[in-house]
Every structure is written in structure tokens, then in C-alpha cells.
TrEMBL record, chain A:
InterPro entries in UniProt: AAA+_ATPase, ABC_AA/LPS_Transport, ABC_transporter-like_ATP-bd, BCA_ABC_TP_C, P-loop_NTPase
Keyword field contains Nucleotide-binding: yes
Domain of life: Bacteria
Organism: Paramagnetospirillum marisnigri
Keyword match Hydrolase: no
Entry's Gene Ontology BP terms: D-alanine transmembrane transport; L-alanine transport; L-isoleucine import across plasma membrane; L-valine import across plasma membrane
One Pfam family it belongs to: ABC_tran
A single cellular component GO annotation: plasma membrane
Protein name, UniProt field: ABC transporter ATP-binding protein
Single GO MF descriptor: ATP hydrolysis activity
From TrEMBL, chain B:
CDD domains registered for this protein in UniProt: TM_PBP1_LivM_like (cd06581)
Database matches in Pfam families: BPD_transp_2
GO molecular function: branched-chain amino acid transmembrane transporter activity
Protein name in UniProt: Branched-chain amino acid ABC transporter
GO cellular component terms given for this protein: plasma membrane
Keyword line: Cell membrane, Membrane, Transmembrane, Transmembrane helix
Signal peptide, first to last residue: none
Taxon lineage: Bacteria, Pseudomonadati, Pseudomonadota, Alphaproteobacteria, Rhodospirillales
Subcellular location: Cell membrane
Lineage top rank: taxon: Bacteria
Transmembrane feature ranges: 65-82, 88-109, 116-133, 166-186, 216-235, 255-278, 298-319
Organism: Paramagnetospirillum marisnigri
Keyword Acyltransferase: no
Length: 244, 330
């Protein structure tokens, strides 16, 4: 096993015309860790995700996955290299059933054997407590279920690194705790490395080994959850100067 | 899926009964009814071919007459000039159509020409080709290509010279084959990938699907399937004119069946073809009875509108859920 971190983001940046959405962001996600990316709205978190996943081309910087340079590879290639992602604005295959949605991710394995992909997908759906909804059309799911479907679909691609973009949003506290438990279980049992964007601090505190804070496209702090939540710059950007 | 599972359920049993009736049809119906059945099956077959690209993979072509024409001219020209069997001509037509479809796909998909703009690109290619064939002496240019009609006394399956009954069974076999082929496509990996691309291309890409390659396969398969229909038209009608075979009108007529029946469904193109032909025949009769010109066209148009307003997803998805015909496929 190589000693390189699972993900190493080196000085990445993205400009949309004049707007600098992400600027010189550097951080690492160690193998087997759960790292959270937090920051106020518009901090550049989702853009950072899109840069890592290859959904957007980088303006500058380098992305290394498991010791391999994946900079500039497209989204599909990066997925095949081992990055599974969810979308903040969910993108289910609305006309397909729930299990078929997941199968699309699983069909890359076993030579495209549909029966095996279906079985593997049902396992994943059961894990995410969507098993009883497997044959429903995806468009009938509620938003929390759609978020779970996003996770299931990404897991079906058997990623080494899972990128979760606000999968707790809209979940009730109990559901949120269930999702935290599921993710912790996956992390513990399969060694899955997870990078998540999250606003729900309850989940961030429970899950993360390490937290990276972005503000105005730049990294302003990183550390353990308790370190960053008491960091003056972090308090300032969330609550204003007088609270810091 | 096992044969037993395939035959269980209401849908499949109805389908088998329908097939049996169609196989027996030439024994009991006259020449006119047979010609109607041939027209229905031809429209169903062409609709299914288009459905692979639009219905399954979500890539909108408005120029499928192009592949009909290429299939017709490839087999027709080889037959007229060299006496080549249409079966070999068919393979040539499939290859040419798949190649031309791939060029259109390459241009469209590589340069992100999407949706209606992609449809415009397909129209442009069909129209270019029509003009090209209109001026190409070797294939008869605008005065057309006529296939010699001989040996009508007995059916020659190798050269496809024969009676309407032979052509009826040929188009029936093509339709059944097209249905089974479409069904097998939907049930394998490529079918799932196509549907994922149709539903959300970005999400499909994020799941590691080779989107470009899958779309190219969809165009090539759809084009090759369509060209077989062209071969049928060439040998059934015995004359080819660029003006009609490549016409925009044919491209539109071809997609009407699946749209009425249900885009992306397996049975929709067949049901659509039946409904359209039934409407056409009924309104022709009505027009003749009333004796006013244009009544047929107006009634036909109104009927299409009503169906599309009431059942925008097509008639088949509604019928299927209404009468529990599931199991016969999508």
C-alpha cells in the first residue's frame, strides 16, 4: 500500500472570467480519513468539489489521487480512477427506478452483468435504508431519499474516495444521525475515504477527523473539529468580527 | 429471462396472440388489407429504429430519412448495376448508414451540438444527401432508380422478387426482429447507459460512463437498423426517387408513430403505427363519404393534437398501466 494521501490538492484555483472562485487552495485527505470542507455560502466549496471530480477544468494547480496525477482528466475518467461524487442539487435519473439508478453505477463491474449489478445495487440500497423503495420510479422520491440515492449511486461505482456535497441538508436530526452512522460504518468497515461538504455542524462534528474551512475561495483554517470551531478567523467569517 | 417467465402475464400472452394473428393474416385478408398491414409494419419498424436513438439514448434526430434513403439506394443500386442480392446490399447499406450516422454524431457530440440544434444538423445532412442523389447520374439522379420487375410467378427470397405476401412476411419478420433486438438492447449494459444519458448526461458522466462512445453507438445502431427499412422500401416499391426517399416529410412521418405510441417504450412505436394508419384509413373513408376536400387532413391533425394533449407520454404507457400489461417490457 502506498503511503501517499488518498487525495492531495495542491494550490488549485478557478476563475470564472474575472471572478476568482477558488484561489490557491491546498489540503490533503489521508487514506481512510473523513475530512469535512466547511465555509459560509459562496465560499467555493462546491467549486472545489467540481475541480477535484473533474466536472470543471482547473485554472491552475494539481490534483493527486492515491499518488496518481489526475489533473485535467474528465469527470468520467476521474470516476473510473476511483472518485465517487454526489451532487448538491440532486440529479436522479428520474425516469428509471431507484434500483436502476444505482445499477448504472454498478454496471462497470462484472463485465456489465445486469443480474449481478442489480444484486449489488440492492445491497447498497439496503445499506442506505432505501431497499423497500427499490422498484419505485426515482422521480417519486422525497428530497432526503434523493440525497440517499445520490450516495447509493456514487457507492455503486466502488470509489476509493467519496465526495459528498451536502447530503445531510433537509434531513431531520434522526435521519441525519442515521446517515452519520452509515457513513461511519462504511469508513470503518471498508476503509472508504470521505471528503464532505456540510453545513450541518452536528454531522461535521460527529464524522470528521479533520476540517478544512474555506472563505471567499481561500483556505482560512484547518484542524480538528474543535480546533476550527474556536479559530478566530472562522468565528469572524461566520458570526462577524465582534464575536471573534 | 427464462422462456416461461417471458410467456407469463397478460401482456406477453396478448403479444403472442397478436403475433399469431399477424402470421395467419395473409390467409384471410385481401390484397388491400395486406398492403395496409405492410404499411403499418414498415412504419412500426422504422419507428423502432428511430426509438433506439431518441427513445433510449435521448438523441433527437429529425433526419432519419437519410438512413432510409442510404439503405434503399445501397441495396437498389447494387441490384440494378450488378444483380447483387439485397441481403448483401443490406449489409452495405447498414455499413454506409452507420458510417454517415457516426460522422453526424462525431460533429454533434464532439462539439456539444445538443437538442434541437442537433436535430437541425441531422436535417441538414438528410437534405444535403437528397440534393447529392438528385444530381448523381449513376444512381439515376432526379429521374429515379427503377428496379426491374421479373419472375413474379414465384417468390425469390435471395433476390427479393416476389408477391406481396412474401414482402408481408419479410416486414413482419423485420418488425419482430427489431422488437426483440430493441428489447435485448434495453436489458443490457448499453441500454442502461443510454437511459442514464437520456435522463441526465452530467450525472451519467459523473458515474464514469463513456458518454461520447455510448451516444456514437446509439446513432450507428439506429442508422443501421433504419437502413434495413430502406432496403425493404426499395425492393417492395421497385422505384426510388431522392425527392421522396430522403424527404423531410418521411423523417417526420417516421417519428410520429413512436411519439403517439410512447417514445422510449418497446411497444410504443408499434402501437403508434397501428393508431396512425387506422386514423388515416378511417378519415380517408370519412372524407370520401362527406365529399369535401381536406376533411381527412383536418380530422387527422385534430386527432393527433388530442392524443398529444391527453397523453403527452404516448398512448402505450397509459394503456400498460391502465390494463396491467406489464411484463411485456417497457
Amino acid at each position: 500500500m502506498s503511503t501517499a494521501p488518498m487525495l492531495s490538492v495542491d494550490n488549485i484555483g478557478k476563475s470564472f472570467r474575472g471572478l476568482r472562485a477558488v484561489n490557491a487552495v491546498t489540503f490533503q485527505v489521508p487514506r481512510g480519513d473523513i475530512v469535512a470542507l466547511i465555509g459560509p455560502n459562496g465560499a467555493g466549496k462546491t467549486t472545489t468539489f467540481n475541480l477535484i471530480a473533474g466536472a470543471l477544468p482547473l485554472s491552475d494547480g494539481r490534483v493527486m489521487l492515491d499518488g496518481r496525477d489526475v489533473t485535467g482528466l474528465g469527470q468520467a475518467r476521474i470516476c473510473r480512477e476511483g472518485v465517487g461524487r454526489t451532487f448538491q442539487i440532486v440529479k436522479p435519473f428520474a425516469g428509471l427506478s431507484v434500483v436502476e439508478n444505482v445499477m448504472v453505477g454498478a454496471l462497470r463491474y462484472d463485465g456489465g452483468d445486469v443480474a449481478k449489478a442489480r444484486a449489488a445495487s440492492l445491497d447498497i440500497l439496503n445499506l442506505l435504508e432505501l431497499g423497500d423503495k427499490a422498484s419505485l420510479p426515482a422521480q417519486t422520491l422525497t428530497l432526503p431519499d434523493r440525497k440517499r440515492l445520490e450516495v447509493a449511486r456514487a457507492l455503486a461505482t466502488r470509489p476509493k474516495l467519496l465526495l459528498l456535497d451536502e447530503v445531510m441538508a433537509g434531513l431531520r436530526p434522526v435521519e441525519c444521525d442515521r446517515m452519520v452512522a452509515i457513513l461511519q460504518g462504511l469508513n470503518r468497515e471498508t476503509g472508504l475515504t470521505i471528503l464532505l461538504i456540510e453545513h450541518v455542524m452536528r454531522a461535521v462534528m460527529a464524522l470528521s477527523d479533520h476540517v478544512v474551512v474555506l472563505h471567499h475561495g481561500e483556505k482560512i483554517a484547518e484542524g480538528t473539529p474543535s480546533e476550527v470551531t474556536s479559530h478566530p478567523k472562522v468565528l469572524e467569517c461566520y458570526l462577524g468580527e465582534e464575536h471573534a | 429471462m427464462s422462456a416461461a417467465a417471458l410467456l407469463s402475464g397478460r401482456g406477453p400472452r396478448l403479444l403472442l396472440a397478436l403475433l399469431a394473428a399477424l402470421v395467419a393474416a395473409p390467409l384471410g385478408v385481401g390484397d388491400y388489407a395486406l398492403s395496409i398491414l405492410i404499411a403499418v409494419l414498415l412504419q412500426a419498424y422504422l419507428g423502432m429504429s428511430w426509438n433506439v436513438m431518441m427513445g433510449f439514448a435521448g438523441q433527437f434526430s429529425l433526419g432519419h430519412a437519410l438512413y432510409v434513403g442510404l439503405g434503399a439506394y445501397a441495396s437498389g443500386t447494387l441490384f440494378v448495376h450488378f444483380g447483387t442480392s439485397p441481403w448483401i446490399g443490406m449489409l452495405a447499406g447498414m455499413a454506409v448508414s452507420a458510417a454517415v450516422g457516426s460522422v453526424i454524431g462525431l460533429l454533434g457530440f464532439r462539439f456539444k451540438v445538443m437538442g434541437v440544434y442537433f436535430a437541425l444538423l441531422t436535417i441538414a445532412f438528410a437534405e444535403f444527401t437528397r440534393v447529392l442523389f438528385d444530381h448523381w447520374g449513376w444512381v439515376g439522379a432526379s429521374s429515379g432508380l427503377v428496379l426491374p420487375v421479373t419472375n413474379r410467378a414465384s417468390d425469390d427470397l435471395w433476390l427479393l422478387r416476389g408477391s406481396p405476401t412474401m414482402f408481408y412476411y419479410l416486414i413482419l419478420a423485420m418488425t419482430v426482429g427489431g422488437f426483440l433486438f430493441s428489447r435485448s438492447l434495453l436489458m443490457r449494459r448499453i441500454g442502461y447507459y443510454w437511459q442514464a444519458i437520456r435522463e441526465n448526461e452530467d450525472a451519467a458522466d459523473a458515474l464514469g460512463i463513456p458518454v461520447f462512445r455510448c451516444k456514437m453507438i446509439a446513432v450507428a445502431v439506429s442508422a443501421a437498423m433504419t437502413s434495413i427499412g430502406g432496403m425493404f422500401i426499395a425492393f417492395f416499391s421497385n422505384n426510388l426517387f431522392p425527392e421522396s426517399i430522403f424527404s423531410m416529410h418521411r423523417s417526420l412521418e417516421l417519428i410520429l408513430g413512436p411519439i403517439i405510441g410512447g417514445v422510449g417504450t418497446l411497444f410504443g412505436p408499434i402501437l403508434g403505427a397501428v393508431l396512425l394508419t387506422a386514423m388515416g384509413e378511417a378519415f380517408t373513408l370519412m372524407g370520401e363519404t362527406i365529399g369535401i376536400d381536406g376533411v381527412k387532413q383536418i380530422a387527422y391533425g385534430v386527432c393527433l393534437l388530442v392524443i398529444l394533449i391527453l397523453k403527452p407520454g404516448g398512448v402505450w404507457p397509459w394503456l400498460r398501466t391502465r390494463f396491467g400489461l406489464d411484463g411485456g417490457g417497457k
